[in-house]
Amino acid sequence: MIAPSTPTLLGVDVIFVGTVLTGVAAAAVLLAVYAALTVRDPMAKRVRALNARRAELRAGIVKQASRRRSTVVRRTKTTDWLKGALETMKVLQDSQVHAIQRKLAQAGYRNREFAVAVIFARMVLPIVLGLASVIVFYWLELFPDWSSLRRFGGFAGAVILGYKAPELFLSNRATKRTHAIRKGVPDALDLLVICAEAGLTIDAAFNRVARELGRAYPELGDEFALTAIELSFLTERRQAFENFAYRIDLDAIRSVVTTMVQTERYGTPLSSALRVLSAEFRNERMMRAEEKAARLPAIMTIPLILFILPVLFVVILGPAACSISDAFSGDGAVGGGS
Length: 338
Prior knowledge:
The chain is mainly α. The protein has twelve helices and two strands. The protein has helices at 14-37, 44-62, 64-69, 77-88, 94-107, 114-139, 148-197, 202-213, 218-233, 237-247, 251-266, 270-337; strands at residues 8-9, 12-13. A two-stranded antiparallel ribbon has the order 1-2. Strand 1 and strand 2 form a beta hairpin. It is extended.
């Protein structure tokens, strides 16, 4: 009997798998080196967006009288066409648009007109992916071994994925951005306390915090800079604070906004209130870290059982099993010879 030319494990070519894994590891190393050598300023793109927002607010002040008479929003031709198509099909609801606009703001997208594109994509993607799955499963029959139930499951999964994909994408972006902002809130409040005690106005304090935290927490620095711009240009400062809470889905930010509004209205001391909030948020962050640390043993149980213990058993019992196997094979050979 001819032995196989390459070793196999459970019918899988070990050398081929090792080659693929080596290639993946090499690509990951090259990607890490490229990411380390091409460090970019995280605030460059955000500064351009903030400058655009400043220009928009300045134009709004110049044309304030005309905007009071008519709330005309400049849109692109593509957005106008999409909105007209959705209104024709009676699928564009104001509540739905407002919910998606808030999700876009929380995900870091400033243009509210993207909400129409999201609704249009959520209507078109199920049709496109459903037709693609029908072509793949029923017309071309690329999976002939699949049963009818399995093919229908693939079709239904494609349709559901097409409907949920835009919402899942926005939710994922918003969650990541909110988590990144949450980590920098206590430091931002400490800087606000220092700026308030130094005698800076709220506008200057927000600008200072945005400049200091721009590299460590670029998302939070972006929001503080945008709020400072709106405080300088909007006629109602309360609206700037409300926009700040509108763009960030955090109870901590809503507490800060409430404190800022009360300070603006009643003249209460800002530094003492912010110091109390900062201490509270730091305690909350410490409790979250302790909670994760306490959850770690339970989380590590499954990887320990699946990956670490089998390797440990192989290392410990492998030599003994090989010795026992050699002993029995030797006895068999001696018995057969006699």
